[in-house]
């Protein structure tokens, strides 16, 4: 193993963290975010919701199980959440140059190099995470060989247009036709739908899906500021005039809320982990959920036709909404999980039950 090169992480407040390079040795910039999950870095790095962000992993050892194969199923990668890495950079404490796993095909470092994504290790991620928690959203940049770059704020750009499919795609041949509005959809949403006797019509973020023949709609997750996706909101607003079931996930929750007349705001440091507890409103039921979002819906901004579905037990923020009269509901968390937990996958069954009821 050759000696790792020096590389720096610089934050917009002037803080500097010196480390070693283990991925692509280059300079990048983006929004600094942290994830407290212990596993699942192949899934996280390929989650389109991380577009434009430099990811800090709080778990101290990363890379020990390598990167899985590119095997496909139903026309999509079996072990990834998209076709490529979406993070701008990866910051970790300790990198495992050796890796071992039955399905490992390459090292994490080699994978990052393949997609020209810098990786930096040897950072005190505890101190860095505390800084991000205290200061809230902060821009940062990874600087290699003193080649400086400008700070980059992803919130002012249409990231959905960058990560969405560019054309309509159809998957499966099931009985029920479901439109998937792709604003940065994780592939496990597709997998969860396809195993429930569906034909999935995946469409671009600004596509007028109301012109399609469908039995239900799923609004996907995705990156960035929901206030920028006016075309998506306008089409969702048209769909809300009908009565076919709609299921929103993560960004989809926010977009449906905006289409229903609501508003959103940015959280101080977002929810990114596999262990966020949410409560089903009106019950004592609690679920552990996978989350990855920086913005959140203002529940009180909705009219009386809507009600909270779930709330976050850590900070009492909105975790989903549902319509009192029509078959519309959404979750801020990820019921499709990947990489875990799978406690709330039953919501796909709930959605399909609504679809089947209206198909009769």
TrEMBL record:
Domain of life (superkingdom): Bacteria
Pfam families: CPSase_sm_chain, GATase
Organism: Xiashengella succiniciproducens
GO molecular function: ATP binding; carbamoyl-phosphate synthase (glutamine-hydrolyzing) activity
Family under the similarity heading: Belongs to the CarA family.
Claim: Acetylation is one of the keywords in the record: no
Domain Carbamoyl-phosphate synthase small subunit N-terminal: 5-143
Catalytic center residues: 250 (nucleophile), 334, 336
Residues holding L-glutamine: 49, 222, 224, 251, 254, 292, 294-295
Region (CPSase): 1-176
Keyword flag Metal-binding: no
E.C. designation(s): 6.3.5.5
Biological process, per Gene Ontology: 'de novo' pyrimidine nucleobase biosynthetic process; 'de novo' UMP biosynthetic process; glutamine metabolic process; L-arginine biosynthetic process
Subunit structure: Composed of two chains; the small (or glutamine) chain promotes the hydrolysis of glutamine to ammonia, which is used by the large (or ammonia) chain to synthesize carbamoyl phosphate. Tetramer of heterodimers (alpha,beta)4.
Pathway terms, separated by semicolons: Pyrimidine metabolism; UMP biosynthesis via de novo pathway; (S)-dihydroorotate from bicarbonate: step 1/3; Amino-acid biosynthesis; L-arginine biosynthesis; carbamoyl phosphate from bicarbonate: step 1/1
Its biological purpose: Small subunit of the glutamine-dependent carbamoyl phosphate synthetase (CPSase). CPSase catalyzes the formation of carbamoyl phosphate from the ammonia moiety of glutamine, carbonate, and phosphate donated by ATP, constituting the first step of 2 biosynthetic pathways, one leading to arginine and/or urea and the other to pyrimidine nucleotides. The small subunit (glutamine amidotransferase) binds and cleaves glutamine to supply the large subunit with the substrate ammonia.
PANTHER family: CARBAMOYL-PHOSPHATE SYNTHASE SMALL CHAIN, MULTIFUNCTIONAL TRYPTOPHAN BIOSYNTHESIS PROTEIN-RELATED
Reaction equation(s) it catalyzes: hydrogencarbonate + L-glutamine + 2 ATP + H2O = carbamoyl phosphate + L-glutamate + 2 ADP + phosphate + 2 H(+); L-glutamine + H2O = L-glutamate + NH4(+)
Protein known as: Carbamoyl phosphate synthase small chain
InterPro entries for this protein: Anth_synth/Amidotransfase, CarbamoylP_synth_ssu, CarbamoylP_synth_ssu_N, CarbP_synth_ssu_N_sf, Class_I_gatase-like, CPSase_GATase1, GATASE
Database matches in SUPFAM superfamilies: Carbamoyl phosphate synthetase, small subunit N-terminal domain (SSF52021), Class I glutamine amidotransferase-like (SSF52317)
Keywords: Amino-acid biosynthesis, Arginine biosynthesis, ATP-binding, Glutamine amidotransferase, Ligase, Nucleotide-binding, Pyrimidine biosynthesis
